[in-house]
């Protein structure tokens, strides 16, 4: 009987401490003003992404546990959303920043851990507006690059273990002092290799994804 009472007391103590910890975390969040909030159901569980006035993004599951917490200064209005970025059938988190250049953060959902994990280096301007190239394991970005946004660059890349691996680069140049044209590069061991130059008139006829698709074989070749 004595041992049963000790065990029962230990369970109550543990439960009380666990509840106290959750209440403290919840109260910390409630002291700050909620600025943006979005939610989505993933594999039967509802997740909330809350950006608060303390410049911290909280990702909270249906048990009210904070599974992701990171400081994010200057998240752009209406940019916080759930979307299936890598087209694996589960929703990820994406949001952008207010700055002289637009840049984004993407957190991929890990089905095993039920948590979200950042793609390393995705939050630099060169990888803004990234999309998955249909029917491939590749992605491409779009980033205005000076000259009143008339110049732009686009990186072609893959993602392996949450790390970006650059494969190609397009530089679109139309400013007066530039050598006008669209330049397509293959990237090999961080070195740029020019594989094509296209006139602006010809380049403007095709969407960016089609431009990349026309050069995939050259980029994939040794």
Describe the model.
This protein has helices at residues 2-30, 200-203, 208-220, and strands at 34-42, 45-52, 56-60, 66-71, 81-83, 92-97, 103-110, 115-118, 131-132, 139-140, 143-144, 152-160, 163-173, 181-188, 191-198. 21% of the residues lie in helices and 41% in strands. The chain is of the alpha+beta class and 222 residues long. It has three domains: 1-31; 32-98, no CATH class; 119-222, no CATH class. Mean pLDDT is 84; it is low at 1-28. Strands 9, 10, 11, 12, 13, 14 and 15 form a seven-stranded antiparallel beta sheet that branches. It has a four-stranded antiparallel beta sheet with strand order 1-2-3-4, with helices on one face. A four-stranded antiparallel beta sheet has the order 5-6-7-8, with no helix packed on it. The protein is built from three helices and 15 strands. This is VCBS repeat-containing protein.
